[in-house]
TrEMBL record:
GO cellular component, one term: Golgi trans cisterna
Name of protein: HID1 protein
Lineage: Eukaryota, Metazoa, Chordata, Craniata, Vertebrata
Domain of life the protein comes from: Eukaryota
Region (Disordered): 494-604
Alphabetical list of InterPro entries matching this protein: Hid-1/Ecm30 (IPR026705)
Organism expressing this protein natively: Neodrepanis coruscans (wattled asity)
Length: 719
């Protein structure tokens, strides 16, 4: 506090402030760990009133508040953390309390055009102060996860309130420092080995502080500004009623195209960094904070709808999509990266709720990022389907709760996919084949949902995009017996039992044989499991897909209208959603002891659930097979005739025939397009909180900040 009062004009004062910073960063976690000390920072120190007398104690600030205000003042302290604007001798040094910190924003970008001279000493000092801020905010780690997401973090609440006179310049500085960072620098190979990069630790710290300040439950607030649409202009005296959290408020009110462009380009550049391939190994610097960036991107899209529409307006969204697919594919076998898999899928689910995303996926995929997937020629939609297939067939078992989400994303984009490649078409049919085996359908109460999703994908493409999709139609014809088997699924008890017996022989979750995987891309490494002993943090369970999304119907003119909640209470085929939709037994991994987990991972987990003929009938009768059966009825005889007449074994002739064929007037009336849009809810808000703090905890193990203290928000586990 004294340093902030005096403005730290001497080297000695600056050193004292930095030492205090480091000591507090080291000690605070131990204070937070002890519940008896919890109120300590929110009490006042006797005699700390302005006049030093007892009568002043009433209006003295609690310790937490004076600490936070001192840190924010010091973050805009001339010659300590920002460039002084005066050629000053000590006598005329700027007064830290009278400066307008908006003129001292750390980096050009949103709302600020001037890029200050880089000064590595300032960067180091800012990093120390931000680390202390983050440690203050980390009290949240010492409270167990609660379903009541309204319990805001008092440190963050005060820091992001109007009490902090630097809130706007600080928010802008953090955002700009992150989005303007270019780790490749001047592009000299091995540059990062020769020069220490003082910016990177600052950018990392800034990203972490930023996502913690934006930890705000969107589902409880119905404020207009979170949508980015405020009434009135910026010139009005009345502030629009926004969230009290100023950081969330500012984020939701960014609206200039050039600001959106700056943010999107910056995030895309940083996310693509780990994918940058050079001919010289290790010659380019690889950043490690992609998870924080994904949380930041999520918050931007969730709190600022105008930003979301901007992202989807051009094919720039693909610069976000490709890195996410790369991370998903790379992490699919690694148990310590389940959180990364979830956030990647959540972002794609959010994007897939908008028509433009499906349209953008039709752009040809020409970037050749080495990925451990089959080589294909096609569009970004093909890439997405092939990666999702890989996750489902060769990811680890903890990813099962995500299958619903992955298929929902494909359903959401399917009405807009102009032409799938043969590789992607075969992958979709392979998934249907795997999910429609009797043992899979009968072994868990919600498994049949996956078949409904896939049938919906085929129906959307056949009804709305038949013309360009001869590859998919051909694949459907070739695998027609899968559809016939579904239509004739046995429903008597004996067959159900027989289907379940088969499971005991094949413990493999999904057979990987009969999927012709082909050669993987050149230069790719197979997705590896975590090294034994890798630290990971537990996550809370995510809500089931029926709670994560709400259904909207797309009208003729392309607008969407939300369907009444009564209808969406039912799962795809009209059964009430079951307790299992939470993805038990996989997602709530922290809450079950080992014994429970063993019991849960048996096929049935609600009491002793067993499939009955009535249950099978209840959803079998609703399988949407009419469109596909009609297509097979019309096309199969024609294709067979061509083969017999011309003695054909060559598929190119058949594909040519299918390309020119038409089913106009032969198919049932097209069904309305249903989109399942992500909707904010407190379950995901809590998931994001535990995930975000878990990431921050693990990124600060060396040197340790919280390591080995008794955190309550998650469990630390070793793989």
């Amino acid at each position: 506090v004294q340093g902030a009062e005096s403005g730290c004009h001497t080297e000695k004062e600056r050193q004292i402030v930095l030492n205090c910073c480091r000591l507090l960063t080291r000690i605070l976690p131990y204070i937070f760990e002890d519940p008896d000390w919890r109120g300590f920072f929110w009490s006042t120190v006797p005699g700390a009133g302005r006049g030093g007398g007892d009568e002043d104690d009433e209006n003295a600030r609690p310790l937490a508040e004076s600490l936070l205000l001192a840190v924010t003042d010091l973050l805009f302290c001339p010659d300590f953390t920002v460039q002084s604007h005066r050629r000053s001798t000590v006598d005329t040094a700027e007064d830290i309390h009278s400066i307008d910190s908006c003129e001292y924003i750390w980096e050009a970008g949103v709302g600020f055009a001037h890029s200050p001279q880089p000064n590595y000493i300032h960067d180091l000092n800012r990093t120390e102060l931000l680390k202390l801020l983050l440690t203050c905010f980390s009290e949240a780690m010492y409270l167990p996860p609660s379903s009541d997401s309204s319990n805001t973090n008092p440190w963050v609440q005060f820091f992001c309130s109007t009490e902090n006179r630097h809130a706007l310049p600080l928010f802008t500085s953090l955002l700009n420092v992150v989005c303007a960072y270019d780790p490749v620098g001047y592009g000299i190979p091995y540059n990062h080995l020769l020069f220490s990069d003082y910016r990177e630790p600052l950018v990392e710290e800034a990203a972490q502080v930023l996502i913690v300040t934006l930890d705000y439950d969107n589902s409880t607030s119905s404020s207009p500004t979170v949508d980015g649409t405020t009434t009135g202009t910026a010139m009005d005296d009345v502030d629009p009623p926004g969230p009290d959290n100023l950081f969330v408020n500012y984020l939701s009110r960014i609206h200039r195209e050039e600001d959106f462009q700056f943010i999107l380009k910056g995030v895309a550049r940083l996310l693509s960094n780990p994918l940058v391939q050079t001919y010289l190994p290790n010659s380019a610097k690889k950043i490690q904070f992609h998870q924080e960036l994904l949380v930041l991107f999520w918050k931007l899209c969730d709190f600022n709808k105008k930003f979301l529409f901007f992202v989807l307006k051009s094919s720039d969204v693909l610069d976000i999509l490709v890195p996410i697919l790369y991370f998903l594919n790379d992490a699919r076998a690694d148990q310590s990266r389940v959180g990364l898999m979830h956030i990647g899928v959540f972002i794609l689910l959010l994007l897939s709720g908008e028509r433009n995303f499906g349209v953008r996926l039709n752009k040809p995929y020409s970037v050749r990022v080495p990925m451990d997937i089959p080589v294909f020629t096609g569009t970004h939609a093909d890439l997405l389907i092939i990666v999702f297939h890989k996750i489902i067939t060769s990811g680890h078992q903890r990813l099962q709760p995500l299958f619903d989400c992955l298929l929902t994303i494909i359903v959401n984009v399917s009405p807009y996919l102009k032409s799938l490649s043969m590789v992607a078409a075969n992958k979709l049919l392979h998934l249907l084949e795997a999910f429609s085996t009797t043992w899979f359908l009968f072994s868990a109460v919600q498994n049949h949902h996956l078949v409904f999703f896939l049938l919906e994908v085929f129906n959307n493409i056949i009804q709305y995009q038949f013309d360009g999709n001869s590859n998919l139609v051909y694949a459907v014809i070739r695998k027609r017996n899968v559809f016939h088997q579904l239509a004739n699924l046995p429903t008597d008890s004996q067959s159900i039992q027989k289907g379940l017996q088969r499971k005991k022989k094949t413990p493999e979750p999904i057979s990987r044989t009969n999927s012709q995987d082909g050669v993987s891309m050149e230069g790719s490494r197979p997705a590896a499991p975590a090294e034994p002993g890798t630290l990971k943090t537990s996550l809370v369970a995510t809500p089931g897909i029926d709670k994560l999304t709400e259904k909207s119907q797309v009208s003729e003119d392309g607008t969407m209208r939300s369907l009444e909640p009564e209808a969406s209470q039912l799962s795809p085929e009209g059964n009430p959603p079951t307790a299992l939709s939470d993805g038990e037994p996989w997602s709530g991994e922290a809450s079950h002891s080992r014994r429970d987990r063993r019991r849960l991972s048996s096929a049935s987990s609600i009491g002793q659930w067993t499939p009955t003929p009535e249950w099978v009938m209840s959803w079998k009768s609703k399988l949407p097979l009419q469109t596909i059966m009609r297509l097979l009825q019309v096309l199969v005889p024609q294709v067979e005739k061509i083969c017999i007449d011309k003695g054909l074994t060559d598929e190119s002739e058949i594909l040519k025939f299918l390309q020119h064929g038409t089913l106009v007037g032969l198919l049932p009336v097209p069904h309305p397009i249903l989109i399942r849009k992500y909707q904010a809810n407190s379950g995901t808000a809590m998931w994001f909180r535990t995930y975000m703090w878990g990431v921050i905890y693990l990124r600060n193990v060396d040197p340790p900040i919280w390591y080995d203290t008794d955190v309550k928000l998650f469990e630390i586990q070793r793989v």
